[in-house]
Write a structure and sequence with these properties.
The complex is a heterodimer of chains A (359) and B (266). Chain A starts with a helix and ends with a helix. The N terminus of chain A is likely disordered. Chain A has one domain: ABC transporter involved in vitamin B12 uptake, BtuC (Orthogonal Bundle), CATH 1.10.3470. With 359 residues, chain A is mainly α. In chain A, the strands form two sheets. Chain A has a two-stranded antiparallel sheet. In chain A, helix 3 crosses helix 12, helix 8 crosses helix 9 and helix 12 packs across helix 13. Chain B has a single domain, classed as Rossmann fold (3-Layer(aba) Sandwich), CATH 3.40.50. Chain B has 266 residues and is of the alpha/beta class. Chain B has nine helices and ten strands. Chain B has a six-stranded mixed beta sheet, sandwiched between helices. A four-stranded antiparallel beta sheet of chain B has the order 2-1-4-5, with helices on one face. Chain B is globular. Chain B is 37% helix and 22% strand. The chains are: A mainly alpha (359), B alpha/beta (266). Chains A and B meet through helix 9 and helix 10 of A and helix 2 and helix 3 of B.
Chain lengths: 359, 266
């Protein structure tokens, strides 16, 4: 009797740590706390500008988050094609713009081409019975050559070309100066991006939300949820997988076309490791907005991508003074490693949680 | 309604782990027959169902549903004619979707899908009428995710979904085996009423001999990939479980003798 009473507190102590690790709070601590901390740490005279820039970048990339959400969460079809379809969208935007086409036209073209190559991946996976990861690596690798062929070189600058933003830029700048004063002028570009891209992203989100509630969209969701069931109900699951992966990559390519015009260049390597950024957005988003429905899930992917970009901007502005008097700062090149670690930790935590639930 | 002609199925042919699961199944089912199937583990019951449903194409033989040869049809195409309930309650429904969405998908069986609303108002109204008679209160939880339901509730839903839009054939693969006894009884009652109301041609695998005798109009026994016993309604009447077991041992003995004969001849 006495033995149990003495051993109990020790047991409780260890289980409390374990419970903390396994709880829903864990990812919040790992993900959200650093972001909030980082927000306070953004220093310098231009902290608001850093914020705004990160939000604009995050919105431009938001459809990547939605695309990853579609393949990883809805379809249960891990897809890396986006590493290739994202620069594909950028390539189309760049090459069309320097050849005098309307910048607006590049958006539907990128959307369509992204969809085609996403479809190719899904066809390879379903018809040739090749694992989705491998099929998508094959297509993404092939796309490197296609992108280089399209652009003719590895990088096309668009700084002096017309973009979807350029016709509105001068007027918007004047409006900002008239309304908020000369000081606010430096924020004009980012505000314009946030408004214009925000409208595009919200529009895509709403259309996709609507689509998932239609008969076809419902069957697509059921395919990812339970392929055995959709087959038993007399539907060919391959058809819905191909459709879904195509939609996902179409959105990613659209994002590529937007980002190329926002940052002022297209580069063949811009998609490298994008999948991890997309996953990070989905994971970060899910801790902020619980994805209880498709509508909330797409919102969470968008919010997640913005938060993720803000966290990166914050990390990049960090300065540590080392004991020797040197300063250490996070370089842009460190971001991929940090993101990879973040995704790893959160995936591990979710596994720990799952194990607890099933045992 | 269903005709199987000399159905053979061999897995891993020519390899060291070669398994012959079906050795010449001949079966003819008339419309509205309700057949229960028994047999020990490895007798080929599930393989038979998988062959009918089209998870693989048989090594030899033909499968006809309503006089249409479906032997080479892929599974999803055949599923337009066949309703199926699996042993595992998780296999028949999409967990992350709502009851209404799952049921609507089943209502859309054999129809062309479009961009109309998936859970239309018309379908939602119909759903209530469909779910109310089974008495599990599902009609009040249309917007709940299936995830939240118990195994029995999910199995009841799968049964309804499989029988909607009257399939030519209903396959029940030990669909109560994973449930607790009370729920299993309830699901069997629902099964009985659904099959009778819609006059479905049904095949039901069961491990419970009493069930096999109580339900349906005909009982088959499978052993080592063959139909070794085919009892009509008249032959089943008055037969007890013990009687059935005796018949089974008899058949088993014969099969054993056959094997010994074969071996001694070699």
């Amino acid at each position: 009797m006495s033995q149990t009473t003495t051993s109990q507190p020790v047991e409780k102590e260890t289980s409390r740590i374990a419970r903390l690790l396994q709880s829903r709070i864990a990812p919040i601590i790992v993900v959200i706390l650093p972001i909030i901390l980082a927000l306070f740490l953004i220093g310098g005279s231009n902290s608001f500008g850093v914020w705004l820039g990160a939000t604009a970048t995050g919105l431009s990339l938001a459809l990547v988050g939605v695309g990853v959400y579609i393949t990883f969460r809805i379809l249960d079809f891990p897809d890396l094609t986006i590493d290739g379809t994202y620069p594909l969208g950028a390539s189309f935007a760049a090459i069309m713009i320097i050849n005098g086409y309307s910048p607006w036209l590049t958006l539907p073209v990128a959307f369509l081409m992204g969809g085609v190559f996403g479809g190719v991946t899904a066809v390879i996976a379903t018809k040739f019975k090749i694992h989705s990861l491998l099929a998508s690596i094959i297509v993404a690798t092939g796309l490197v050559s296609i992108n280089l062929r399209l652009m003719g070189r590895s990088n096309i600058p668009l700084l002096n070309e017309g973009t979807i933003f350029s016709p509105f830029a001068p007027g918007f700048r004047d409006f900002i100066i008239a309304r908020f004063g000369e000081d606010a002028a430096r924020y004009a570009t980012n505000w314009l991006t946030i408004i214009m891209v925000g409208v595009i992203v919200i529009l895509c989100k709403l259309v996709f939300d609507w689509f998932t509630q239609t008969e076809i969209g419902m069957a697509m969701r059921a395919t990812g949820d339970n392929g055995k069931m959709i087959k038993a109900l007399g539907r060919n699951p391959d058809y819905f997988l191909i459709l879904g992966v195509a939609i996902s990559n179409a959105m990613v390519a659209l994002s590529g076309a937007i980002v190329a015009q926002f940052q002022g260049f297209a580069d063949v390597n811009m998609g490298l490791g994008l999948i991890i950024a997309g996953l990070a957005a989905v994971i970060v988003g899910e801790t902020i907005v619980r994805p209880t429905s498709v509508r909330r899930a797409t919102l969470s992917a968008i919010v997640g991508m913005i938060m993720y970009r803000i966290a990166i901007a914050a990390a990049l502005s960090l300065r540590f003074t080392l004991p020797g008097g040197q300063t250490f700062r996070v370089e842009a090149t460190d971001v991929k490693l940090a993101t990879a670690l973040l995704v790893l930790i959160v995936l591990w935590l979710t596994n720990v949680r799952k194990k607890r639930r099933t045992s | 309604m269903l005709r199987l002609e000399d159905l053979h199925q061999t897995f891993n042919a020519g390899q060291i782990n070669e398994v012959t699961a079906l050795r010449g199944i001949d079966l003819h089912l008339s419309a509205e027959e309700f057949v229960t199937i028994i047999g020990s583990n490895g007798a080929g019951k599930s393989t038979l169902f998988n062959a009918i449903a089209g998870e693989f194409s048989p090594t030899n033989g033909r499968i006809l549903i309503d006089d249409i040869d479906v032997t080479t049809w892929p599974e999803y195409k055949r599923a337009a004619l066949i309703g199926r309930v699996f042993q595992n309650p998780y296999h028949g429904t999409a967990a992350q979707m709502t009851i209404a969405e799952n049921m609507s998908l089943a209502m859309l069986r054999r129809q062309r899908l479009g961009l109309r609303r998936g859970v239309s108002r018309l379908r939602r109204e119909k759903l209530g009428d469909l779910l109310a008679p089974i008495g599990l209160g599902l009609e009040d939880r249309l917007n709940d995710k299936v995830d939240l339901l118990s195994g029995g509730q999910r199995q009841a839903m799968t049964l309804l979904m499989a029988s909607l839009s009257s399939p030519k054939l209903l396959l029940l693969d030990e669909h109560t085996a994973a449930l607790d006894p009370a729920t299993a009884v309830r699901i069997l009652e629902i099964t009985q009423s659904v099959v009778e109301e819609q006059r479905l041609t049904t095949l039901m695998i069961t491990h419970n001999m009493q069930q096999a005798l109580n339900f349906g109009t005909r009982t088959l026994m499978l052993h080592k990939g063959k139909i070794v016993l085919d009892l009509t309604q008249e032959e089943r009447r008055g037969l007890t479980v013990q009687g059935l077991i005796d018949k089974f041992s008899e058949v088993k003995q014969e099969a054993l003798m056959d094997d010994e004969l074969l071996l001694s001849n070699e």
